[in-house]
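We read letters as residues; the integers encode the fold. Take this protein.
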Amino acid sequence: MDKTVVKSEPIGFDRHIFVSGEHTFGTDAVLLASFAKAKASDIAVDLGTGCGIIPFLMLRDGNLKSAVGVDIAPAAIELAEKTAKEENFDNFKGIVSDICEIKGKITFGDKTLVTCNPPYTAAGKGIKAANRARLTARQETACTLEDIVSASSKLLRTGGRLCMCLRPERLSELVCLMSRHNVEPKRLRLVAKSVGEAPWLFLIEGRRDGKIGLTVEPTLYIYENGELSEEMKRIYGPYKEAYL
């Protein structure tokens, strides 16, 4: 899709989200939205929200008391606010900001849930992106992993949860950063394409000022016997059904 073309994409339950060639989403975002297990009482922030897919999936399901999507790209927030307006997600607000400069733009210490699908590689690593938006999404050019964890810790109240997804090679780095910023890792799940393959993603939840104790959940397999696994069918749920 041309980066300048905006289109409406169904996400289930007769809901739609606006995406573009620069600001779209993949399976990892859908997995993170499901893993976060949002509640109707959650006061949430999604860092690096892009088109807003993670909070909008939660809001679609009737979860979240309120949601703020933060992104450094004005075009991304324009898409998210267009979705919020046309889909009547009145409890969503978009903020254009560098994650390191959100103080004063959003209140600290009162959020119950922060989500983030961050850039997967450090600056200068991995595949070179074709444009600035893709580069920002893939590599830590606008912020570092520690910037994300530090901001999340400040946003969360005691007991609040940070949920993220990342490549397995960065697991130890993220766990150390979470502990350093008083977000104790509490729940971990690996994701593999199919049985016998190495995981390509992990999902992790940490709690602000939580006690030590990590639960490792069974590996999530995307495919079984060449078809979507039953669990993936449940996770996709109404999003998948919208295309049938």
Q: What stands out?
A: Residues 131 and 211 are 42 Å apart (CA to CA). The helical segments are 27-35, 53-60, 74-86, 132-138, 145-155, 171-180, 230-241. The two ends are 21 Å apart (CA to CA). Residues 74-86 form the longest helix (13 residues).
